[in-house]
Structure prediction request, 265 residues.
Amino acid sequence: MIKNFNVFFVKVLVVGLFNSFIISASVLATTQDYGIEVQGQASVLVEPDSFALSIAIIETGRFTDKIRMVVDNKSNQVIQAAQGLGVKSKNINSARVSLRVINDKSALTVHGLEVSQPLPNNQKSKVFVGTPQAKPANITAHSFELRRNITVNFLNIKDYDQFLNKVIKIGVQQILPLTMSISNTDKYYQQALMEAISHARTKAKNIANQTARPLGKLVFVKELSRNHYATRSTAMMMSANSVGHNSQVGNQAINASVLVKYAIE
Prediction:
C-alpha cells in the first residue's frame, strides 16, 4: 500500500513539474515575441587621407641591357621626384619588374619577279629577275619589353598633383587610376554604429507612439554590418597642359546597420 502511494506521488510530482515547465516556456515565448523590432542605419562622411598612385615605365628593344638602362634611369627620376616632395622610402614600391619576349614578324623574301613590258608592233616581252634561293635560317629575331611598376603613397592630395606634373615630364608610359582610402576606418565605423542604434531607437519610439503604448527597455541588439570598407579609385583626368589643376577628393561614406528590439509596456 505504501509502495503504491509512493509511485502515485512520484507520478503526480513529475506531471506537475512537466506542466509547470510548459507554462513557463509559454510565458517566456510570449514575452520574447512581444515588442517592437526595427532596423537602424547610419552613415558617416569622411574625407580620404591616404592616396596611392601607380605608374609604369615601359621600354622595348632588342638588347635587354640597353632597355634596362633606360628603365632604370627613368625609375630613378620618378623616385627622386617623390622624395623631393617629402615622400619617405617606405611609401615607395618599385620592386615589380617584368620582362616579355616579343616575336618579330618574318620579313618578306622575294625569290623571283616577272615583269611584262609591251613593245612596238604589238609585241610583248617578259623579263624575269631571280635571286638564288637561300636556305631558311634557324635563328628567329626577338625583341624584349621591360616594364617596371612604381607605386607611391601620399598623405596629401597636393603632393599627388605636383608629383603627377613631374612624372608626365619624365615620360612614363602608363599612369593608373588614383586610389583613395581612409586610414582609421574603425574609428568612424564605431561612430556610425552608435548613430545607427540611435536611429533604430527613434524609429521604435515613433512606432510605439502610433500604437499609444510607451516604449519599454531594449531587449535585443544585433550588428548587421561588418565595416567592409573598400578603397575608391578615380581615373587620371590630368594632361600635360593642365599643370594648374588642383584635385578634389570629396568624402566617402562609412555605413553601419543594426537590428534592435524594444519591449512595449
Summary: Confidence is low (pLDDT under 50) at residues 5-32, 236-243. The CA atoms of residues 35 and 58 lie 66 Å apart. The longest helix spans residues 2-32.
